[in-house]
Amino acid sequence: MNPLFHGLLLLLAWAPLPLGSNRTWAWAILVVGAGLLAMFWLAGYLIGRCGLTDAFRRARWALATGALWLLYLGLQFTPLPADWIQILSPRAHEAHALAAGVLEHPLADTLTLSVDPHAARDFWFRSLAYGCMFCLTLLLVDSRRRLELLLKTLVISGTLQALYASVMVLSGLEYGFLIKKFVGQGTATGTFVNRNHLAGYLNLCLAAGIGLMISKLGGEAIHSWRQRLRSIVRLLLGEKTRLRLYLIIMVIGLVLTRSRMGNTAFFAGTFIVGAIGLLLMRNAPRSTLLFLASVVALDLLIVGTWFGVDQVAKRIQQTEVTTNADNPLPAEHRDEVDRQTVIYAKDYWLTGSGAGSYYVTFPAYSSQSITGFYDHAHNDYLQLWAETGVIGLGLCALIVALATWQALQSLRRRNDPLMRGTAFGVTLAVCWLAIHSTVDFNMQIPANALTMTVMLALAWVAATVRGGDRRM
Predict the structure, then answer these.
(1) Integer CA distances (angstroms), 159 to 137, 186, 203, 252, in order
(2) 258 vs 271: CA distance, rounded Å
(3) At CA 109, angle to CA 107 and CA 112, rounded to 5?
């Protein structure tokens, strides 16, 4: 059903615009939009106009894990007998008892695993929207044309973000989403609030673009000067040149964010996944190796020199992990926050303090050396452990591991360039975000989380959509 597929693309393109959808009204639009698309698909399925795809069937273990994740998150804000809470999460029981004492109320007979059930409920709705988008990607992206359109949507969205962010920085206008920027002046933020989150989003769009570019490399053999001339003309005027230009624009935007780990993840991840991909891809054309080399060399040496990669390097060199009276630069507190978050996570090690409850729980663990208010841990792994325990951390890790394995299998087994390129892009997205998440909270930003969820689903799409080779 084309309207549903177009609705999927529209929601995917809309997500980053309103401040990365990191406001209640903005993520509510995502939840309603994804829910409506899912209900329309179910209605079509009941009347026989929609059906299950091979990708959906093949992703059954990931879907089962996602269902367990939603059930588990729902359990966090479900009232349970107080005695159960004391057994499952003694610290949560203490937190509820402390709150009751402050309010001078008796402790209720039923409590929740989450110390903030309202935040846990909001988190559950956002996770439900991501789950709907994951399923819809598996169900609607059932052809080469649709797969290419989805990848192009991400490329165009990332290019527009990079263009807008670059113009704002270079012109000095400094506007975000319809309002003047109140933080991050002098760096590229696009329509996001935080430059690191724009960097994370651009990395995801670059992964889609690089995968699409790889699918278009190679081609017919050249035996005469006429064929060579036609090949050069097609290169200069064709789609590959436009796509390469889009990738360069996104890299410019990435560099202008001055995001240390965003840029580090991009270049390091390209080396790592590039090496893995070349080992797994059978009969990979030489042009693939040359393209991957150019992504790092050309963008780093030429684009980076013009647009300030040296300033990114300077920020990395000047990073202070402790307060230094001789250095006027602001000290970094992320390492101290991480250490305190580990203590916090150990207290709630099994079931967590409740999804979305970091902002209300961490102040009790903050030390005197930490200034300011932290509503996120600046480390997705630690925050996920602290809020959802080892159960939630394990479920999320399993979904990502299944998608990565499926993408690597597609790289090794498929011969179709588009499927192989898509699998490469998925692997890049996982690697880049895995590195970036060690010092930031991209997965707490709805636009980035939703985009990453769609990219994970493409691992199974790349494995099953009919291409130029036979089905696996």
Answers:
(1) 22, 19, 11, 10
(2) 20
(3) 85
Distance CA 426, CA 465 (A): 15
Domains: count for the chain: 1
pLDDT at 324: 41
DSSP-assigned letter for residue 51:
-
Please indicate, yes or no, if residue 420 is contained in any of the structural domains: yes
- Which residues form the domain of 318? 2-77+112-464
Instruction: Enter the pTM of the model.
Output: 0.90
**Other CB atoms closer than 10 Å to residue 206's CB: what's the count?**
31
Specify if 82 maps to a domain: no
Q: Would you mind telling me the total number of residues written for the chain in this entry? A: 472
- Between CA 261 and CA 463 the distance in angstroms is 31
Residue type, 472: M
Please indicate, yes or no, if residue 323 is contained in any of the structural domains: yes
Structure tokens at 441: 């909270």
- Token representation of residue 290: 């040359």
**What parts of the chain have a pLDDT lower than 50?**
221-222, 236, 321-331, 469-472
In a domain, 87, yes or no: no
Predicted pLDDT of residue 255: 86
